[in-house]
Amino acid sequence: MKHFYLIFLLCFHFLLQSQTNSDQQKIIDSLISIVDTYDDNYEKIRTLTSNAGQFRYSKDSRVLIDKAIRISQTRNNAKLLANSYYSLGNFFYYNSQLDSAEVYLDKSLSYVNDETMPFLRASNLMTKSGVYRKKGNIPLAHATMLNSKRALDKIDTLKLDETQQRKFKGESLVLNNALANYYNQVGEFDKASHYYDNAYKASLSLQSYVNAGIIISNKGDMILSQGHFQKALEHFEEGKTLKEKGNAPRRFIMSSILNIGNAYSKLKRYDNALKNLNEAHEYYGDNGMTENLTIAKNYLGNLYVETGKYDLAIENCKNGKALALTAGNLELIADACDCLYKAFQAIGEYNKALDNYQLLTKTNDSIFNENNIKKQTQQEMQYEFNKTQELNAIELEAKEKQSKLYSYLASSGLLLVLVLGFFSYRNKKQSMKLAKQKSLLEATVDEKNVLLKETHHRVKNSFQIVSSLLYLQSESVEDKEAKIAIKEAENRVRSMVLIHQRLYNKDELIGINTKDYFIDLVRDIIESHQFKTEPIPYQLNVENLVLDIETTTPIGLILNELIVNSLKHAFDEVTSGSRITISFYKENENLVLKVTDNGKGFEGDLKSSSFGITLMKALSKKLKASLNYNSELNKGTEATLIIKKYKLL
């Protein structure tokens, strides 16, 4: 009977390679009729779910999965339910319904038995990692991939038969490809290249030419992002050749055509690019493949930007952005916004360009930020630590077994000495191995700290460039009001420069000492305010606290605005009696910032229409803070900021 199943699946696999859209429903109906004749429920589920995968979880394949779930629920069998719900989770994943995918993948995991289903947990976690990556949660995607790797590491390959050994190698190469895709996304290209090469070699050794084509194409995508366009094109064409050699379905070939079109576009061979991209766009549209259709629209949009056809660029990228927003795919949202930003900027619609640039920045910040880098490092360290702990547990179990053996050999002194000597040697060797692992972990921590410092250094340099540009602009402006506005913008940028400069120069990579920061910031603001005849005396009363960057940045910007307001409005003329006092301290559960001057004061309410007041209100909301003013004519003004949301380190 099993030989019949195998022949049947091979025949259907052949049909899937050559099918057209009109044939697909007939094949599915025929498949369901044949499955109904099976006696073995597990064979029913395996046939239904594997063929759904062969259809690449197209919308028509949903009927196969629903039938598998009905059978599994009727039998109330954990193994059947785990496989059926995993297939449904994949269906939602490939159709860009990420929330539903996560729900059913979790449901599948609740039924997984690691003893009887050793591969399913690893496969499930790999798909979940893809869900998190598309949602933009990069740290969780990375952690889930490492958990998938741990699940594979736990499998005792010596107990696997030939078929299971092949499956294990297949799962491992898919995981290596997924890890490579992750490191490619976060810009760690050496690691990505290492995992791509391992996966590619494993695919060729298994004669899995389709997988080899996919992997070499992914590596081509990495090379393309590094600016090596001709080499990337060669990888894409090799990937297409390998897929064709493996009789891959048309949709697999089409992804190569899409990539080849994008490479031609980068090489400015626009006729070839347009031909390939239009072919892919038409195919994905006809087959309802939303995610790939979004990518094709973004690629076409960028091509039209390059060739100056901005109306077509905007049309394609607007549609791509709408599809990406519906699917919640942050990577594709960012690509569409980048295209629209360039197109709108080119035709002079700067407001629309700015809107898309802000969404692009916000999306990228949610994917790549210092916290994500830190979490990645912690996850890699945790993975290595857990692996070491598991080795220790295995060693402890071995020692317990050895103790029992010693009791059986107590009558033979010579043999006991030999056994003790042997295990002493093993323990020494294991200790050396653990010491080496510890040294490796310490080196990894040092390396990541250097990378984090370099991140702060680069951010500081970027802000410094902006500050310098503003300064140069102010030097060429004659209008006093414009000069003041540019100087205020320069001061705001300077407040953020100081934060990253401190993080780069100090041992604390994530915390800011408020006392040191306030001293430098206030001095810079007072000295750079060139619109008074002489610097105004000031006094600082700042408590020595260490705050995270998310708290310090808005506080620094608000402090800048309050001091500048005093400098601009409090004093008509600076005298020896003029003074500004800045206080910052923790009171009960709140942080309190006070800026007091003895200037001319004011009556009534502040005008809330100025940019500085609007900025302070927005920043106060982020800190869940209240900002109040107390002023009397000829006696001065006191501004008090009471902060409820903050993080002390």
Overview of the structural elements:
- The protein has helices spanning 2-18, 21-35, 41-54, 62-75, 78-94, 98-109, 120-135, 138-153, 162-185, 189-205, 209-225, 229-245, 250-266, 270-286, 290-306, 310-327, 330-346, 350-367, 370-408, 413-475, 480-505, 514-528, 549-569, 611-622, and strands spanning 511-513, 538-542, 546-548, 580-587, 590-597, 626-632, 636-643.
- With 649 residues, the chain is of the alpha+beta class.
- The strands form two sheets. It has a five-stranded mixed sheet with strand order 2-4-5-7-6, with helices on one face.
- Helix 8 runs parallel beside helix 19 (370-408) and helix 12 packs antiparallel against helix 13 (250-266).
- Mean pLDDT is 79; it is low at 1-20 and 370-394.
Number of separate strands? 7
What portion of the residues fall into strands of 2 or more residues?
5-15%
Mean pLDDT over all positions: 79
Low-confidence stretches: 1-20, 370-394
Chain oligomer state: single chain
Shape: globular
Describe the main β-sheet briefly.
5 strands, mixed
Q: How are the secondary structure elements laid out?
A:
Elements: H1 2-18, H2 21-35, H3 41-54, H4 62-75, H5 78-94, H6 98-109, H7 120-135, H8 138-153, H9 162-185, H10 189-205, H11 209-225, H12 229-245, H13 250-266, H14 270-286, H15 290-306, H16 310-327, H17 330-346, H18 350-367, H19 370-408, H20 413-475, H21 480-505, E1 511-513, H22 514-528, E2 538-542, E3 546-548, H23 549-569, E4 580-587, E5 590-597, H24 611-622, E6 626-632, E7 636-643
Parallel strand pairs: 2-4
Antiparallel strand pairs: 1-3, 4-5, 5-7, 6-7
